[in-house]
Amino acid sequence: MPVFSSTLCCGQRIEMTVPASQPLHGHLVLVMSRNDKTEPRNQLSEDYLSAQGFGVDVDGLEANKPIVVSAETFGYPRRSLADIDAGDYYVQAVFNVYELFHLASGKSIWLPPDKGEGQHWNAKPGNPYSRPVKLHFDPNSGATIRLTLDQVIPPVEGTDQDPLVIAARSPANKWLKYMRFRSEKLSKFWGRDMYLAAWILLPDGFDEHRDAKFPLVVYQDHYHAGFAPVPFVTSLPDASGPEARRQQNGYRFFQDWTSGRLPRVIMIYVQNANPYYDDSYLVDSANVGPYGAAINEELIPAIEEKYRGIGQGWARATFGGSTGGWEALATQIFYPDMYNGAYAACPDPVDFHAFQNIDLYEDKSAFVRRGDFAEVPIIADRKPDGSAIATAQYEYAYEYVLGTHGRSTEQWDIWQAVFSPAGPDGYPAQIIDPLTGEINEKVLVYWHDHYDLTAILKRDWPVLGPKLETKLYLAVGDGDTYFLNNAVHLLQKQLDATRSPHSDATFQYGPGMPHCYTGGPPEYTMQQNNANWAQRVLPLMSEHMTASAPAGADIKSWKY
Fold first, then answer.
1. Per CATH, is 163-343+453-461+530-548 categorized as 3.40.50?
2. Entry's Gene3D superfamilies (predicted)?
């Protein structure tokens, strides 16, 4: 039975031409919108309020030959062009350019490289696109609509989104530094030069206290052009609105950082966008590459050497939320001696019995749960009150429109890229069929053994347990938008059952709180607690480092 129904016909089609001098390799995304509030390319999303999209793989197409979207082309949320109602639409197309990567494994695969934009197909420098145009579409018409992708997204370099420009112009450059770092490990894996970047926030008094060495705190998050934990704002903004509030939070953080109210540590945020996503998940992966080793064995030692880090495991800690929450927890688990505390908020699935709302081990399909006489869709996103925002089936369709072979650069595909072995064709082995929802049990075994954090802790607790005591802190809202609280509860259940030693990991749940809940005093709102999260965790980290430091460790030079 097909997952998506459609009435295929020979009706209206859309032809798009990309001016080029060489054969084309990449993926075309065509977007149709009912409104022109923003360009159509910026309206396509995974929820039910989305615009309409169609995706076409292009592999060696002769230059200046048209790319065709017809009734047979896969679409989201409507399956086919034949299913689109007759009417007026704003239409736009973007061509996501792929490059050939010659991997160390011997495979050669076509992927969209990050171009400094944080892996966004609709903003990627060098991608051709068409201007938005309003047109009348009729699925029963035999006429052909033609578009030309004669615009090109400009480069990030030299703009206000360029991290080097941000660093140069920032009045905070006394404290905030930017490092671009070539990774030997990643370059070998990908068969070309690959870079990491890091924003480094130095403690106040760094230049004056030349003999001091400092603990290191790693903040984990998605790609940001600037410093990610909070803005580091050196003067109080006078504007109003959400961005002004964010800037005001950044100004309070700046005041706390430079007044002595916060411990003197080095805080870093690593940019690690890659050909599959805006973030690597900071582990060694068969498809994404050895990002765990590159960051922890190459980049962090280089930062500590240049900026006088203590450079010992007792003097490092990590925190982050969502993707960053999973990364903070995984970093502590996979590098238990290198870190002395992980504060993980609303982490991505830490137990694959709760892969968002899918039980990979028990469900037969990732899209529906079936009874003897009926089936119900599996909801992927919700509001805190339980209202459905999106289903797993439609989110997979959305990503399939953006790229096949796991190349959407979106959430489900990066999990597949990170957690799966490489397939025979060099692309990530498929865990869930994006069209049928079928779960690949052989690939699941690999996921379980390598990246199910609850399963790893259960299996390796005799070794890991003593190394993780006093180091694990988790918080999640029990109304989490992506059902991530379910996996955290399963993790707690497993850790509560541990012996020799009994885990002392702490958990905080926010009743009815959505995604991005970071814990904190219940008398404050979630937004208030999130705004001062760094101010809440940094003193806890410093106190724990001091209390657990080995004999003879430097616990004084950084306390001035």
1. yes
2. alpha/beta hydrolase
